[in-house]
UniProtKB/TrEMBL annotation:
Organism: Novosphingobium humi
Name used for this protein in its record: ANTAR domain-containing protein
Domain ANTAR stretches: 122-183
Record PROSITE patterns: ANTAR, RESPONSE_REGULATORY
Pfam families named in the record: ANTAR
PTM annotation (4-aspartylphosphate): residues: D52
Record-annotated membrane-spanning stretches: none
Length: 193
């Protein structure tokens, strides 16, 4: 497992590094500068990112949340203190584990496992949401196209759908593509969508 530790304090980073060394089978990379952070993490190709922020100011926390939003990786963030607003912001930023009261070596394995599992569960949900939204958009396009065919050609709904389906088969395209073309052509001809 490739682990990136992000900590502006080299001393704190070394404590975390020592705790992770007990796990074995880990390659550990320490980043102590914020400049070029996203690029560095991409170069490392880390499996998980650990951010030990100590007691960050609101601006620093927001900056790291912005980095979290860009990274498509499990992220565990360690802070000394927190409040409800910061915890909510960390979830919105895609942080997989937000650990208050700092790093403790005896908890690291369970925190890594939690962060990785939550990241994959959240990614799976995002993928399912994206697929559902895409299917809904396709269904709406097909419904619009059917209405257009019903209004312009006097067809019933089953006939309008059959016409879309037949055209899609003849052209080797999906019904949603044909429906989009019908809707676009109707708009170009001055019709309401």
């Amino acid at each position: 497992m490739r682990i990136a530790i992000i900590d502006e304090s080299a001393v704190r980073a070394s404590v975390m590094q020592e705790g992770l060394a007990q796990l074995g089978d880990c390659e550990i990379f320490v980043i102590t500068e914020r400049r070029g952070l996203v690029r560095r993490i991409s170069e490392i190709d880390a499996d998980i990112v650990l951010m030990d922020l100590g007691n960050p100011s609101r601006d620093v926390l927001e900056e790291y949340f912005a980095v979290s939003r860009v990274l498509a990786r499990p992220i565990a963030m360690f802070v000394d203190d927190s409040d409800e607003e910061s915890i909510g912001a960390s979830i919105d930023a895609g942080v997989s584990a937000y650990v208050v009261d700092g790093f403790a070596p005896h908890r690291i394995r369970s925190i890594l496992d939690l962060a990785i599992r939550r990241f994959h569960a959240f990614s799976r949900l995002q993928t399912e949401l994206s697929v559902a939204q895409s299917k809904l958009a396709e269904r709406e396009a097909v419904d619009k196209a059917k209405r257009i065919l019903m209004q312009t050609r006097g067809l019933g709904e089953p006939e309008a759908y059959a016409e879309l389906r037949k055209t899609a088969m003849n052209q080797g395209k999906r019904i949603a593509e044909i429906a989009d073309a019908v809707v676009t052509a109707h708009k170009l001809m001055g019709g309401a969508a």
